[in-house]
Design a protein that fits this description.
Elements (H helix, E strand, L loop, with lengths): L1 H16 L9 H30 L3
Pfam families: zf-Tim10_DDP
Keywords: Chaperone, Disulfide bond, Membrane, Mitochondrion, Mitochondrion inner membrane, Protein transport, Translocation, Transport
Protein name: Mitochondrial import inner membrane translocase subunit
Length: 59
Amino acid sequence: RFFFQVHHFMELCWDKCVEKPGNRLDSRTENCLSSCVNRFIDTTLAITSRFAQIVQKGG
């Protein structure tokens, strides 16, 4: 399930950031992909941290 979610996320970032695939990424596309990935990582860490807090409290 985790790998499915990562794959789905990568498709979303790709669709959002890549207008036309080529041999290289231009700086705009590279920045967009980097920001998209960073948002995903930040969100995942926040959710994981919150889940750990709930588990520790016995909820």
